[in-house]
Structure prediction request, 548 residues.
Amino acid sequence: MLDVGLGRLRVVLAVEVGAPVRSNELIEAARWARTHQLWEPMRAVFERAWEDVPGPETGLWFGEALYWTRRMPEAEAVLAAGELVCTTDAERVALATVRARTLEIGLGRPSEAEALRQSRLDSVSDPAARLEMACAQCERWMFDGEIDQVLAVLASARDLSAMGHVDAAFDASRYRLTQSTVGALGLNGQFAEMTAEYQLHLQLAIDHELTHPLAREVVDPWWVAGNLTAGRLDTVVDVISDRYATALAVDDGLSRPLWALPKAIERWVAGDLVAAEHFAREAMGVPAAVVSIRRMATHYLARILELAGRYDEALAHARSTVGDDYVGIVRSWGAGIEYRCEMGSSAVLLPSDRRRLAARVHDAIDGAIERGQLITAAYVAHDVVGYDHGIDVAATLSDLAARTDAPSVRWMSAHASVLAGDGVDALLDAVHESNAAGCHGLTERLASAAVDVAVGRRDTTAAAAATALLQQCRSQTTGFAGTSRQPGVFDAFGLSTREREIARAATAGLTDHDIAAELYISVRTVNAHLRTIYRKLGINRRRELPVG
Prediction:
């Protein structure tokens, strides 16, 4: 092992001074550097390998090194030259996928990238090579939010596997495909399948010693974000802490903001909006080339600010990417955030403005469902629950809850259903579940709705239970608009200060005479107050008083 390390060091030193290097030693050093993603420190070695031993493999390595060190025009030129010396479909596909990513992400030429991918896909017949090329298409589809397209490729890969088209090359492509399918299944709300796909990703890496520059920094964040938005906080909280701590230690300018985004989502889900805002702003500090993370962080920040009641700031962030179709996954979110900001602000909206907002939300929900973004559709539909929007969100959320296995969608559906006339018990169950799962951000809204519904229906038992849950939730959240005061059930029913005092004394077991003596008022006044309390609470006798 020591001799191997010294051999690599000799190669590096020889390259630095321009001395001759054996081709086999040069290739071994470059291959090792690529495996360990030492793009900047070993860039000169990659370049020398390409110059001395020009071929598909060395062209790919040098092109990747130029891409990851942000020398995009040079990367595209090297990758194009590498394609000219390819002799197999596998080689052409490997060069073309990295070149297409360089054209699209690095140089902002997506039409050329799409043409390149399609050309290579049309020219190869080997199943593994076609799957590898389709993986590159899936990267594009994930950015566009075309989840249904990614899942169609996954179905094809599974069919090929069932027919026995499995070898080392196929497994390598299948591993590459998981970089898109883990996120796609999460956005589609198929979390049992997402878990299986994530486990396959890990197993293939172990069985075949597979690596890819994007693998760890793509699959893990998708896995984490998917579980968080589904309300499965407990499955990933340790992963987030570990990866963010590692990112802080590395501090390479990319890892820290990359993992700040899952931290922001985790804090938002947990109901800690103060910390969530901090991490979302940190995530927005990614390098300009990492557009997807920047766009997602912008939209999560907008959602956090809206929940905090900072509507003008939230609107500015939600609208900052209007017209930018680079990340289709978050396009729909902006419609829901804008709707809630406009409806929650003090500005008076004209009927035409309301119709415009409702139409945009309706289109966003339909578009998200059509593209397979069922979790996104659920969140946007939930954004308009409780408003006069002209959309049957109760039916929409009920359908989405039946089509996904995401607990959060089931909880949202219970919220919409109770406002549509269903009993409050299902919503109270959802509040219990979401609170127990640590999803205090969603719990706050569900519990508030449960209190309002129970009070409106004069259901004192449900109101007392919902109020207790809301108090518990608000003790665990920070930054939400209008949650500084801890309400009691008597506050919810509009009892005056004196009426609350008497009601609490009565529920504590004091008689009318005891209450009169305690408060220095007459028994007749106590009786009068109790009659008013009974009327406001919709009850008839003392033993029906809730604990408030």
